[in-house]
Amino acid sequence: MATAVLKRFAFSRPRPQVAVAHAFRLQRTAAVASCRVRANPFSFGARSPHAFRAFYSTESGSKGDDEEPKDGAKSPQEADGKSDEDAGVEVVIDSAVATVGEGDDAPTYPFVLAMPAHRRPFFPGVVLPMNITNPEVCKALVALRDSGQKYVGVFLKKATASSNGSSDPLKMGGGEDLIKDLSEIHHVGSFARIDNLLPFDVNSVQVLMVSQRRITIDDIRDEGPPLRVNISNLENPPFDRKNKLIRAYTNEIVATLREIVKLNPLFKDHMQYFSQRIDINNPYKLADFAASVTTADGEELQQVMEEMSCELRLKKALELITKELELSKVQQVIKEQVEEKVSKNQRNYLLMEQLKAIKRELGMEKDDKDAMITKYRERLAAFEPGSIPEAVNEVVEDELNKMSMLEKNSSEFNVTRNYLDWLTQLPWGKATDENFDLAKAKQILDEDHYGLSDIKERILEFIAVSKLKGDVQGKILCFVGPPGVGKTSIGQSIARSLNREFFRFSVGGLSDVAEIKGHRRTYVGAMPGKVIQCLKTTQSSNPLILIDEIDKLGRGYQGDPASALLELLDPAQNGGFVDHYMDVPVDLSRVLFICTANVTDTIPGPLLDRMEVLRLSGYDSPEKLAIAKEYLVPKALERTGLEKAETTPESLGLTDDAILSLVKQYCRESGVRNLEKHVEKIFRKVALEVVQDLESAKAKETQEAGGATAASEEVSSDENRFLITPEKLSKYVGKPIFTS
Questions:
Q1: Are 99 and 34 in contact (CB under 8 A)?
Q2: Is the pTM of this model over 0.70?
Q3: Comparing C-alpha atoms, which of 431, 618, 419, 423 is closest to residue 520?
Q4: In which band, very low, low, confident or very high, does the pLDDT at 154 lie, cut at 50, 70 and 90?
């Protein structure tokens, strides 16, 4: 880390000084020979400050204070006579590395310029690069450099609410670099030497400082700005090297540092190099080094900075380094968990890729894209030759070629895949065999519905025409009638009688044209319309499609569905119906469309003109009686579970008079839907009584109470109890609604 800082400052100097740097490297042996063990990896006391200055000087060709005197020449200070402030400064003479005061031997000044340290105190021996953006502080530092004095005082700035909110001094416009009052800083700080000063512009400089020793502020000398303070040096008190407590603290700090080096890679690079060079015999420097490498906050580090007792300083440093060790352990656990998860996922991925490669080599599996293309071509090969229109074949081939060139993760690939799924799953040329047997068709129609002679006759005519022509034709019919007369249910019977697949969808309240003609493929989640979905579901090109509630079509901002149905329900146009999603012509001429409506007033004229209207009138009383006896009563017995022989009472039944009474007094509607509800209601109540009788009979076997036995015998003695007559209707369905 220290080396990186030095390199950054070295590379920022002008190129003409490279020769001086080469000269410094030639003298490196002498400098290293005089190296002393430092208490911090960032300390540069191992090199003479004049050699450091020669290596990092930014002034070219000037006789400034950063330039070494030539052989035999005296420095300007020697020529003019040394001042009191420069008395302790030694310089390089005869190209040799001379010693300048370091650490406790650094020059002593009665007052210094006060500069703030942000976030952390400046421990002795540490190198601190700092960007100064305050113009007044910059001018003061340049004046110090020009006067030959290179020492300042660095004090930790106290945390305030404003500094917590904006902790970056570079964003404060230089205000954080100026100390205005002693209350802003801690009074114990560092006596630091400026080793390099690089001006960025008129109002900012970059300073590289090396801390020498501890100092404390006595009082203010000059309020400035910037602030200058009178200082006193803080000397470490003597200590007993045989003190067991000090030795124990020292050994524990060294052991903790070694553990951190093993756990935390952030410390491994620089601490592993300098750990062997720490003077562990000097507990003060060891405590400073241990505290400086931790990530503790500034206030905790300042306590170590202010502590002068050897034992207490070691204790506080040990506390901080122990916290750092625990943090490193937690980081190591998190690192191992992440690495384990990543390595497991990576291992699974590699194994899956190897498995795919092995299967591909053995011919057991192909690439996903190749497998999809093969699947689509197999679907196309399953169709009979010539059944797929030429236009559709061209589109499919183009899409397959495009799919082979697309990436699997692209959105266009998914759109193409879905489109090919629909194209290859439509029943091109597939159709069910038509039933041309009139007798069988009539039997099926009569099984499910009573009456409806007009509709049944029209279906038989359709079958007869298809039989004479020898091919299957499509037709558009519209059943109009009141609710409950069987318009929807007759559609299923017609499909069974014609041996066609049945598909029903309701358009009541429909206001989106896309439900009829599909969405454009450019939209996310686009799908074909209901008609294309019907062909895919039924896998037949000649199904019976029942469009229910066509008289209740809606209309909204998405378009007019009634107008969209004009193409669909026109025999002259639906032979080449084009869905917005499919974008290829689909033949619907063999589809039998049946629409249902209650009235024709709300159906648009052009749409009504395309349909053959068959009207269904309401049922009269004899027809409702027949429907109830032949269809409604057997269906109600099946739904209520009374058709079983072991549970059905022998007398169970609904007399003709009861049915007629239901029709006249309860169900006068045109249809039979309400009559069906009343019949089911009667048999549900009968089912309740049957279950109660069964439970009573079971209780009779386990109980010997005479009252319960007599009641059971009395109930079972009524043989016609479950024969529903007009007199019993009020018990099951309530009072009559119509009395006249």
A1: yes
A2: no
A3: 419
A4: very high
Give the separation between CA 386 and CA 253, rounded to whole angstroms. Answer: 89
Write the CB contacts of 131 (distance below 8 Å, at least 6 apart in sequence). Answer: 169, 170, 200, 204, 205, 206, 207
Structure-token pair, residue 284: 């003060």
| Nearest 10 degrees: Cα torsion 498, 504, 509, 514 | -110
Chosen CATH of 621-733 out of 1.20.120.910, 1.10.8.60, 3.30.460.40, 3.40.50.1390 = 1.10.8.60
Whole-number Å distance between alpha carbons of 716 and 722: 11
For residues 300 and 320, what is the distance between their CA atoms, to the nearest angstrom? 8
Residue 256: closest CA among 271, 241, 270: 271
| Average confidence (pLDDT) over 377-400 | 89
Q: Note the pLDDT tens digit of each residue in 183-217.
A: 889 999 999 999 888 888 777 888 999 888 899 99
CA nearest to 396, candidates 588, 582, 580: 582
Q: Is 481 helix (H, G, I), strand (E, B) or coil?
A: coil
Q: Which of 504, 563, 510, 512 is nearest to 534 (CA)?
A: 504
Q: What is the mean pLDDT of the chain?
A: 77
Count of CB atoms situated within 10 Å of the CB of 306:
18
Ranges of each domain in the chain: 2-215, 368-425, 438-615, 621-733
The C-alpha atoms of residue 628 and residue 648 are separated, in whole angstroms, by 19
CA distances from 154 to 115, 116, 117, 287, 387 (A): 5, 6, 6, 19, 92
| Residues near 173 by beta carbon (within 8 Å), at least 6 away in sequence | 133
Looking at residue 559, the DSSP 8-state letter turns out to be B
